[in-house]
Amino acid sequence: MNDVAGSPSLAFDFSGLAWIAHRDDTAASIKVARETSGTPALGGCAAGWTCETLIDDAVAQYFQPSIAIDAAGVPWVGYNDNSSSSNLKIARYVGSGGTGCTSSAWTCTTVDDPVNGVAQYLSLSFDSGGTAWIAYNDTTAGAFKIARYVGSGGTGCGGSTAWTCTTVDDPVNTVAGRGVDIDMDFGGNPWIAYNDTPGNALKIARYTPGLGAGCAPVSPDWSCEVVEAQDDGGWNPSIARSPFEEIAFFLAANPTSVRILRVGEEGGIVIE
Predict the structure, then answer these.
(1) Strand 49-55 and strand 29-35: pairing?
(2) How many domains does the structure of the chain reveal?
(3) Domain ends where: 86, 113, 140?
(4) How far apart are CA 179 and CA 228, in angstroms?
(5) In terms of residue numbers, what domain contains 87?
(6) How far is CA 31 from CA 8, 79, 85, 178, 257, in A?
(7) Contact between residue 87 and residue 113 where contact means Cβ atoms under 8 Å apart
(8) With CB atoms counted within 10 Å of each terminal CB, which end of the chain scores lower, N or C?
(9) Which residues contact 256 (CB under 8 A, 6 or more apart)?
(10) Which residues neighbour 110 within 8 Å (Cβ) at sequence distance 6 or greater?
(11) How many Cα atoms are found within 13 Å in the side-chain-facing hemisphere of 54?
(12) Is there a contact between 130 and 71 (Cβ–Cβ < 8 Å)?
């Protein structure tokens, strides 16, 4: 039996049904399980679920799926394709007639395939206008990047003009983006929590058009800051918007410690 629980990512559609993108570590493929009440157990998939292989060509290695639901209720899955060089790809659920994936229920396309290896870590989310954003790392440069779906006329991505790709933080002599998670604030702007070495510090990047500060080199549209600088403070960060118009961080600081950090009423960071 295959080991199929690698890097699971969960989202709920507008009917409240769960979709889980995950890696089959044995086959090195990406799979999707979706909640389908009343279906029998089949092929290792539990009753009440439908499981399918999204992408598997028996040669390539696929990693780090991240799933999110767009404004029309359609699931998208970002993932790493390590077939020839490590690159960033996206799969969109189309039901039938899809191309580029193993499953014809999905269409798979390239987001960023530069000379550098990218997307060892990635996270996908949609803003309030329905635009897809993918935060990911540039493994070769040790930088942290963002891809925004524009449909056409995009710049900065290798192999695609449907997206615009931008380096957010590329600090000298450190590695940014080793572990990354994205969510939107109440204004629909992205916030990204990410890991930065040395020391595995926790950093935050906020989309602040025209008011950028703190990123390296300085980005006109992004503001970067260290949230917690202690050793292993930024290991596997996860970020979520609270119901009280705050951004809350949930992170595993190391294998034996978990902490919650949140933005307080005065804008400072509160550690719990």
Answers:
(1) antiparallel
(2) 2
(3) 113
(4) 15
(5) 1-113
(6) 10, 11, 21, 23, 30
(7) yes
(8) N
(9) none
(10) 81, 87, 88, 89, 158, 159, 160
(11) 36
(12) yes
Q: Does residue 187 lie within any of the structural domains?
A: yes
- Taking only the tens of pLDDT, the chain with its 272 residues reads 567 677 899 999 999 999 999 998 888 889 999 999 899 988 778 999 999 999 887 666 788 899 999 999 999 999 998 876 789 999 999 999 999 999 999 999 999 998 888 888 999 999 999 999 999 998 888 889 999 999 999 999 998 999 999 999 998 877 777 789 999 988 889 999 888 876 678 888 999 999 999 998 888 999 998 887 766 556 778 888 776 655 555 554 444 455 566 665 555 555 55
**pTM value?**
0.90
The DSSP result for 229-263, as a single string, is -STTTTSSEEEEE-TTS-EEEEEEEETTEEEEEEE
Q: Which two three-digit tokens encode residue 38?
A: 């009343």
Question: Which residue type is seen at 77?
Answer: V
Tokens representing 225?
């800051």
Residue bearing tokens 């979709």: 19
